[in-house]
Structures are given as C-alpha cells and as structure tokens.
Design brief:
334 residues; alpha+beta; eleven-stranded antiparallel β-sheet; two-stranded antiparallel ribbon; 24% strand; elongated; disordered N terminus
Length: 334
C-alpha cells in the first residue's frame, strides 16, 4: 500500500498532449487565483475505457485563504436612463415610447383655445364694422348709346353728383341724387317732365321721381311743374323717390299736421334685398357681383322740326360696387 496519496495512479494523471497550468500552493498572504479543473486525458488504446462521459470544463471560484485581503471586484458602470425603445420585428417601423409627461395640463389647453376664439371673434367684428362701404357710378357707355339711338348725343348731356363712397345701412347717405342736364344745342329748348320720370329699386319696382325744392312745401297729389332748359344752359336739381319722403313732425303744438316733407330713409333698401334675395346680397357683399338700379328721365324738345308733344325717354344706369373692408380703415382717403 503506497504511503503517499499522490502516488496513487489515476486516469487523469496520465500524460496529456495539452499543456497544463502549473499548480500553485496556497499563500496565506494573498488570495488564491481561479483554478480550472484538470483537462481529462484522451483515452489510450490499452487503457480501460471510462463508461461515464467526460465532464465539461468548469470554472471553480477561488477561495480566500484565512487572513488574506479580498480583492474588490470592479464596480459596474452606472447605466444611463434612456427612453424605452422596443426592438421591432424585421419589416416593422421603430416606435419609441415617450415617458416624459406633457409640459401643460388640460386646463392650459382650454384657456389657450378660449383666448384664440376671443381674439378671432374680436377681429371678425372689427372687419364687419369696416365692411359696409360701396361706390355708385353712372354707366357712361350705356348712356351714350341710348342718346345716340335717339339722335340726342349732340343736344342733351346728363351727369350726376355722387360721393366717393357710401355706407349701406341706417347711416346710408344715398338718399337723393343730384342731376345735371345740359342743353348743348343752339336751336332747341328742353323741358323736363318730372311726372313722367321713374326710378327703380333692386327688385325692378318703378317709383315716382320727386324734385326736391328747399324751403317750400310739397303736395304729392299735385302735378309737378316742368323744368325748362334754354339752349346753352344747364339745369341742376336734386331728386329722390316718392316713397322715401315723410312729413316733418310739427314743432308748434298748435299745428296738428306739418306741411313740409323730408327724406326719411335711404334711397336703396339693402335690408329688403337681404330678405328677398339672400344669394344676390351675399354675392354683392363678397364683391363677387355688382348691383344696379335705373332712372328714366323724360324730356321734350321744342324747336325746328320738333313737335312739342314728342317725349324722349333717356335711361340712366347706375352701378353699385362693394369696396373691400380695407377701404374703411381710418388712414385710407375717403
């Protein structure tokens, strides 16, 4: 029986073709390094086969000898926080989950929306206040053509006085028309028959024309006197429609009814047009379409080769053009 256990023969003590690590004896002053299990030797042809399979290589942790100072293991690096990202399958889009909360709350969003609604409403009202101006002009080409068809181009000339702009509504200043009729001939006299003159509205309704004479009372049931225009002279009158006149309220309590008449409302009814023809009114306000009305002036010519009973009807066409809202700004010229 052998005296030393190291002399005992073992299958693992056979020479190995692979180099082996030298064995170190434990030193009490330092920790023993990691040891690896001995590598099993390949089976020899003449040796007895081991029925059990070879064990895999195992790493045995080093044991610390008594009194030895343990070697501190390296600290792991601190991990940085990053948004959680899900690795998608091939062929899918990468999605990143946002874990940071929103910088504002629901109440902040509601307050912001209310603020913008108030600002937009205020701007809309400002624009509507300036969006009520229009211009009136005479269609000169149509008037020249009408005079040429009646051979009156060298005898009669008609013009009107308009402001540069008007405001439709209660403050509309278009309540009357200033008409100028010039007699350009040297041999004919012109008589204007006001009772035969008519004016239309937006709906084409004919209205009686009334000549306004300041400082006098009017009786609408009586006939109006003719206005004569001598050769080479010009007639200037102010006219309006009969249905816009109203008698003034008596200032004296002793007088029950006033005799004087005054213009009580605008010459053109835009509110009535808005009710009767909403589409036409909307197209006018949006500057898509123009509006028009007509004035028929009845005259008689007295002179060579002219009968005193012959009437000539001259049609005057007026065109209303809506102005953009920027035209109503205070710094724009009126």
């Amino acid at each position: 029986m052998p005296q030393n256990p190291s002399d005992i023969a073992s299958p693992l003590s056979s020479p190995s073709p692979y180099p082996t690590q030298p064995s170190f004896q434990s030193d009490p002053s330092r920790a023993e390094p990691l040891r690896t299990a001995p590598t099993p030797a390949p089976a020899q042809p003449n040796s007895q086969a081991d029925p059990s399979p070879a064990e895999p290589l195992q790493i045995v942790p080093a044991q610390t000898a008594p009194g030895a100072i343990p070697t501190p293991s390296p600290l792991p690096e601190p991990t940085r926080s990053s948004p959680s990202t899900t690795i998608p399958d091939p062929g899918t889009k990468t999605t990143q989950e946002i874990t940071q909360p929103l910088p504002f709350s629901t109440w902040d969003v509601l307050i912001l929306i209310t603020y913008f609604v108030c600002i937009i409403t205020a701007i809309s009202k400002i624009i509507n206040n300036f969006n009520d101006e229009y211009t009136v002009r005479l269609d000169g080409d149509a008037l020249k053509q009408n005079l040429a068809e009646q051979d009156l181009g060298d005898i009669v000339s008609i013009s009107f006085n308009f402001d540069k702009r008007y405001e439709f509504g209660k403050n509309d200043k278009l309540r009357q028309l200033g008409i100028n009729i010039a007699n350009k001939s040297t041999t004919h006299s012109i008589y204007v028959d006001w009772d035969y003159c008519t004016m239309t509205d937006f709906g084409g309704r004919a209205r009686r024309v009334t000549r306004l004479m300041p400082g006098t009372t009017l009786d609408l049931f009586q006939m109006q006197a003719f206005s004569a225009i001598a050769p080479g002279t010009t007639l200037k009158e102010t006219i309006t429609a009969e249905d816009v006149l109203k008698r003034k309220e008596p200032k004296d309590d002793k007088v029950s009814v006033a005799l004087a008449l005054e213009v009580d409302k605008p010459l053109l009814d835009f509110a009535g047009l808005n009710k009767s023809d909403k589409k036409r009114y909307t197209r006018f306000v949006t500057t898509i379409q123009t509006l028009e009305f007509f004035l028929d002036v009845a005259i008689r010519l007295v002179g060579p080769a002219r009968s005193s009973g012959d009437h000539a009807l001259i049609r005057c066409k007026f065109i209303l053009q809506k102005l953009p809202w920027q035209a109503g700004l205070p710094w724009n010229p009126k």
